Amino acid sequence: MPIVTVDGARIPYRVEGSGPVLVLVHGTGAGSVTWESALGYFTDRYTVVLPDLSGSEAAEDDGGPLTAGLLAAQLAAVLADLGRGPVDVLGYSLGAPVAVLTAAEHPGLVRRLIALSGFCGQQDPYVHNGLSVWRTLADRPDAFARWAMVTAFSRPYLNSLTPQAVEALATAMRPTPNLLRQIDLDITLDIRAALPRVQAPALVIGCALDALVPVANARELAAGIAGSRYAELDSGHVARVERPAELAALVDGFLAETPVGDAA
Asked: Region 43-58: what's the mean pLDDT?
């Protein structure tokens, strides 16, 4: 597995599939493994690159506070290490503002940009308070995991599962030092100043049933990126689980309709 070193942090990344490069940037959680259930919707036609940035379980660093700039620098190092020229980047949740900031600060590395379930930062009191409540549950692992479940997934999706499947989700995301670092960043980040500097063609995807980061935040992100396209999925925050086929169709459509030079 390739590894890039950025300011002492060791950032691994995986490569799956074949075709034009599509980089999938993880959000708050264990890291690139969170994309696993959706990979099959992309790897038959893209070379999918899956970095593990600081805060993921696979990355190695000093355990200090995370910043959007730090993660953007790590993502940029991965993109440069690929040696494939500018490539397409899809950032999910926390990965969305990280991808946006990377596109703004390293325009030569990001060919086209897709932001899924994203947000600009702490200006939304609803998001700030919801994340803050989640953070305070760190010493109550069961409550922490159930709060993550009910805010991440939509009511229709959860109600479609068996009781056993719901219980499995309710115990899946337990607090770890790295996860708490990511939540601390979610609470404090603000990338609004970077939005006007994004030059790459962009697609912003909001989730209409998102209880964690309500869809108004994705709409605000789209409004701040000049010329961006906007689309919505009838999903909770974790559209890569709830609506993977529809997500893949939106990605395919955007990339097919927005040609930029030769395929990487």
From this structure: 97
Q: pLDDT tens, 78-89?
A: 999 999 989 999
Residue 258 CA to residue 73 CA, distance in Å, equals 26
110-119 pLDDT, tens digit per residue, is: 999 999 999 9
Q: How far apart are CA 218 and CA 207, in angstroms?
A: 8
- CA-CA distance, 133 to 127, in Å (whole number)? 10
Do residues 84 and 19 touch, judged by C-beta distance below 8 A? Answer: no
Looking at residue 261, what is its pLDDT? 58
Task: State whether the Cα torsion 10-11-15-20 is positive or negative.
Answer: negative
Residue 235: name the closest of 88, 120, 29, 92 by CA. Answer: 92
Alpha helices in the chain (DSSP H): 68-82, 95-105, 125-136, 141-152, 155-159, 163-170, 177-188, 215-224, 239-242, 244-257
Q: Is 1 in contact with 38 (CB distance < 8 Å)?
A: no
> In order of start, what are the domains of the chain with their CATH numbers?
3-120+190-257 (3.40.50.1820)
Distance CA 25, CA 98 (A): 8
Q: Which residue has the tokens 């609506």?
A: 243
At 7-28, the pLDDT tens digits run: 999 999 999 999 999 999 999 9
Q: Is the pLDDT of residue 262 over 60?
A: no
| CB-based contact 64:25 (threshold 8 Å) | no
Report the pLDDT value the prediction gives residue 212, as an integer from 0 to 100: 96
Give catalytic residue positions: 93, 210, 237
pLDDT, position 199: 96
What is the C-alpha separation between 88 and 86, in angstroms, rounded?
7
DSSP lists the bridge partners of residue 232 as 206
Q: Is 98 exposed, middle or buried (0-12, 13-18, 19+ CB in 10 A)?
A: buried
